[in-house]
Amino acid sequence: MFGSHLNRISIRLRLTVWYAVALMLGLALFGFVMWLAAEQRLMAGVDARLAQRLGGLQTALKAESWIKNRAHLQRELAEFINGYPDGSLIQLRDAAGDLLLPAPQKTPLWPADKGPERPRTVQREGRSYRIVTGSLASAGENWTVLVAISLNDVLALMRDLRRLLLLMIPAVVGIACLGGYWLSLRALRPVDEITAVAKSIGLQNLSQRIVVPQTGDELQRMSETWNDVLARLDSAVKRMRQFTADASHELRTPLALIRASAELALRRERDPETYRTALRGVEEQAEYMTRLTESLLSVARMDSGPLDLPLQAVDLNGLVVSVVQQNEALAAARLITLRVETANGATLVKANDPALRRLLLILLDNALKFTEAGGTVTASVDPVRDGAIVAVSDTGVGIAPDALPFIFDRFYRADPARENGAGFGLGLSIAQAIAQAHGSEIVANSTPTTGTRFSLKLKL
Fold it and tell me: HSE on the CB side for 141, CA within 13 Å?
């Protein structure tokens, strides 16, 4: 229950509460240990004084051993113990149990039983005493001695120490909590600033960035991470906007042609052949829009996440030969020589057959589109140590060096010399996405007016 309520408050208050609890427990443990240590040290001092008095009494007995008169001995020992504070707390008995000290007119505090010969604490008449008993021998006589010291001073000191700890620990914790809360405010102020900046960023100002504090700590790393996220989001939004604008531009032309053809055909009565011509134009533009829509759907699927293509063993030689045969009629119509170069036998690679076919069809269509009549397009398979390289090369117009880095961008078209087909500028970007789904990448090499070669490596 406490944890659920604690999670509802701010981080700075949560840090202060946990800090206060930890500090309170630490100070309480410290105070308890210090109190025990002080008590033991004071008791050890009292026990040392008990031993000193016991030894002093034995010395006095030996010094007065020549005195045979009991009353005289009692007076001499009484004078000796009067030099001690609370000297009346020394009790001495002879072997018969008769009391020699204190004086007979004083009532002894302790009974005649000897008790254990080690210091101990006892209660008498509402007061605490530390006592020790022992046996003394002097001049052939055995004496039983009991020495006591009042613990009033010790207990008063311990009470003062306990009172001081009970007052100081909460005070120290309170001051520390105020200081900790102030420090947490200063430490988390950059977080509030980052939060305010992050709240102010929207789709209209994604280029804005958070100021990175050069502190070398978690706040700097969090700010840099936020800026990285914003940069990726900004790039993604720009791509979406560019994609939408390019798609709208591509669809505008065929829609305008379809509308113009229909309006011209319906403006007045025309002969059947004119209607057929108008319908053929509409059909061509509808086919163009169908292919464009399919390409746009492919691009949209790629944007939704990486392509998940099941890979299996595919005979690359047979696949390339099959795709080349599909394009032989188109190549012949354009007076282009279409060749295939494969290795002997089967070359099994890890690939997705339909996707790889589409990739090769895009590359072959691109090569045929930009190769002039009389040119040559070659599809080849070259086995290498850990895979196979499939390539499509042509003897076409080539690609300018400044345009080569952008050919895989969506809707990108190079110079007008390469726009003699009805492409959308999406084919190569789709082909590159398919290659990346195979763990590879299409590499383009081109020389203007000489030709272009697209290649990718597939794993065996």
Answer: 20
The residues with which 457 forms a beta bridge, in sequence order, are: 389
The per-residue pLDDT for 418 is: 43
Token pair of 150 as six digits = 């009042």
How big is the CA angle at 47 (ends 41 and 53), to the nearest 5 degrees? 140
Q: How high is the pLDDT of residue 316?
A: 92
Q: Are 294 and 333 in contact (CB under 8 A)?
A: no
Residue 375 φ then ψ, to 5°: -85, 180
Local confidence band at 413 (pLDDT 50, 70, 90 cut-offs): low
Write out the two tokens for 40: 């033991």
**Which residues, other chains included, contact 260 with Cβ-Cβ below 8 Å and sequence gap of 6+?**
none
- Helical (H) or strand (E) element with 446: strand 443-447
Helix, strand and coil content of the chain, in percent to the nearest 5, comes to 55, 15, 30
Contact status, residue 101 vs residue 90, Cβ threshold 8 Å: yes
- Buried b / exposed e over 248-277, threshold 16 CB at 10 Å, is eebeeebeeebeebeeebeeeeeeeeeeee
Look at residue 288 and give its three-state secondary structure.
helix
Look up the pTM and report it: 0.51
- Distance between CA atoms of 100 and 112, rounded to whole angstroms? 12
Instruction: List, for residues 290-329, the tens digit of each pLDDT value.
Output: 877 776 776 666 666 666 778 899 999 999 999 999 889 8
| pLDDT tens-place string over residues 330-341 | 888 899 999 999
pLDDT confidence band for 106 (50 / 70 / 90): low
Identify whether the C-beta of residue 51 lies closer than 8 Å to the C-beta of residue 43: no
Strand residues in 126-224 grouped as ranges (E) = 127-138, 141-150
Residue with tokens 């443990």: 29
Omega within 30 of 0 (cis) for the link into 401: no
